Amino acid sequence: MELLCPAGNLASLKTAINAGADAIYLGLKDDTNARSFAGLNFTPAKLAEAARYTHSQGRKIFLTLNTFPKPGEEGRWYRAVDLAAQAEVDALIVADISLLEYASNRYPHIPLHLSVQASATSAKALQFYKQAFNIERAVLPRVLSMKQVRDLAKEQVVDLEVFAFGSLCIMAEGRCHLSSWVTGQSPNTGGSCSPAKYVRWQECGNERHTRLNEVLIDKSSLDEQMGYPVVCKGRYCTKQEQQGSFLLESPTSLNTLSLLPELHQAGIASLKIEGRQRSPAYVEQVTRVWRQAIDTLLNNPQEFNVRRDWDQALAKVSEGQITTLGAYERAWQ
Amino acid sequence: MSSTLKYSLGPVQYCWEKPQVESFYQAVAASDIELVYLGEVVCSRRRQLKFNDYLDIAHQLKDAGKQVVLSTLTLVEARSELAELKKIVDNGEFMVEANDMAVVQLAHEQGLPFVAGPDINQYNLQTLQFLHRCGMQRFVMPVELSANWLKQVLQHKETLGFEAEVVGYGHLPLAHSARCFTARNMGLAKDQCDTVCSRHPSGLLLETQEGQSLLRLNGIQTQSAACTDLQDFREEMTDLGVDWYRISPLGPESLDYAMALIRGEHAPRPELACNGYWLGQPGMNNLSA
């Protein structure tokens, strides 16, 4: 069971490796990945350096190419695949059909992981990508219950990777247009959800107003701990209920520590930690806890219990400081 | 470039009771709409109509001279849903619209043609061409894309061998979740939802705390609060090579909208309209043509 950790820069990558990550995923400094934020990600030279360092430590490195090539600009995405091949990355995380086609034709030796942005949630969808592009692994969208994950794993179409911890997307990934509805840019088209340039905080008396492209998505008290503003975690009203409330989801993070034995038993190949946009301190904290948890489990699966200090450590770095099992737990749905 | 723009009716996105659905499609059968998409696309828990009920309606529409396409679920989670989708794909008579890659695979395995619906991730020409080689006969542009995107993709339309469709009217499907927002809003668990979404036959409107209409909850689907209306851009669509203008029904009155356009008249404007996506802007924007 692989522990796969995010890196937004070399410092995070080294921290993650030091804290016990088995593999690292990262993106280039452009819109070929869905965490295209200023000051984040890797230039081609840094990618090569990151790959050398990761391999010198006996770990693996995956390049995330999880956006969709734009008509007339496809070359940027193809070049990213070429760069990854030169850097000898261990896998490519890809969502777009044309890009999977390019990578599987040009570099059949590089393993392909189907990105969560491809939104494949069933055995049939996985079979499509397996037969067409020989994908080795798929990252599951955060829409399946634990039972559905188990059922899918039993089909053994490809290896499965699941989100274990981090910011919680509550919509089927890769098919969510909420960000572009308000800002014109979505993860698919613009490389990020709720691009920072559209976010504005306003202090009004003892309230903080959060605006996304001038749309008021939340009102909070000044001392309230806020997550990164996204449309699905705003406070809204209905005709019946004029008091603003979290009608889709509140700012919570996903934390599946308590599901670890079940995920292991289901044969999940990899546990993904979300957060390429987060600080090295976050990466360090989360990686360390998950390393300990996985090692504890593998040592003695029967006796596994979530330690309180693990949960406390994770809660500290969670969005809104509240964690949930999300869709894995039927009651959440 | 292309011949004239034709009009299609998208699948009903909402949970309507069976008599309402049946009378709606009787009116459709009597209309001049050429192409009709039919079927449950949002939630498999909605069982107001079953597969055979939809097939009956499909036959009535076919007898009335319509092209009929069976539309399918957008978010596939359970094995039971796959079995139901296989039954639809194997119907032996009508083409299907895939809204998830599972249905693309099911159709491809059987060597059957299909329509790639708006929720298939088709963001460039190479992807469309790949899907075409798998059997795709027509694609519906993802709702967040624009006229400029189409211009690039349809540059050599006549050589492509497949048709293009644009959602011209209706509340736009923006996202799908495992969570049922309507049930949650009514204080019900998803597994005991009693298809409470049927009480919101055009979705549940969400407003910001400043009273701006923003979203519309429709079970596990989140829609745009505003209704897209691209009637002023039909000439541009024709020039670009768009074959079909899709009307996503809000209710029986959507047929009046369709009929007005078919007659070459202006249709009544929605109260809250949007066209931003078509213009390459935030989808919620509404600009004059």
Main β-sheet, spatial strand arrangement of chain A: 1-2-3-4-5-6-7-12
Strand-residue proportion of chain A: 15-25%
According to DSSP, the number of beta strands of chain B is: 12
Helicity range of the residues of chain A?
Answer: 25-40%
Number of helices of chain B: 10
User: Count of helical segments of chain A?
Assistant: 11
Q: Which of globular, elongated, flat, extended, rod-shaped describes the shape of chain B?
A: globular
CATH topology annotation of chain B: TIM Barrel
Q: What fraction strand of chain B?
A: 15-25%
Biggest beta sheet attributes of chain A: 8 strands, parallel, barrel
Distance between the termini of chain A: 27 Å
Give a short overview:
The complex is a heterodimer of chains A (333) and B (289). Chain A is α/β, with parallel strands linked by helices and 333 residues long.
Overview of this protein structure:
The complex is a heterodimer of chains A (333) and B (289). Chain A is α/β, with parallel strands linked by helices and 333 residues long. Chain A contains eleven helices and 13 strands. Chain B has one domain: Enolase-like C-terminal domain (TIM Barrel, Alpha-Beta Barrel). In chain B, strands 1-2-3-4-5-6-7-11 form an eight-stranded parallel β-barrel, surrounded by four helices. Chain B is of the alpha/beta class and 289 residues long. The mean pLDDT of chain B is 96. At the A-B interface, helix 4, helix 5, helix 7 and strand 10 of A face helix 3, helix 4, helix 5, helix 6 and strand 7 of B. Chain A: This is Ubiquinone biosynthesis protein UbiU. Chain A: It holds the Pfam family Peptidase_U32. Chain A: Belongs to the peptidase U32 family. UbiU subfamily. Chain A: InterPro entries: Peptidase_U32 (IPR001539), RNA/ubiquinone_mod_enzymes (IPR051454), UbiU (IPR043692).
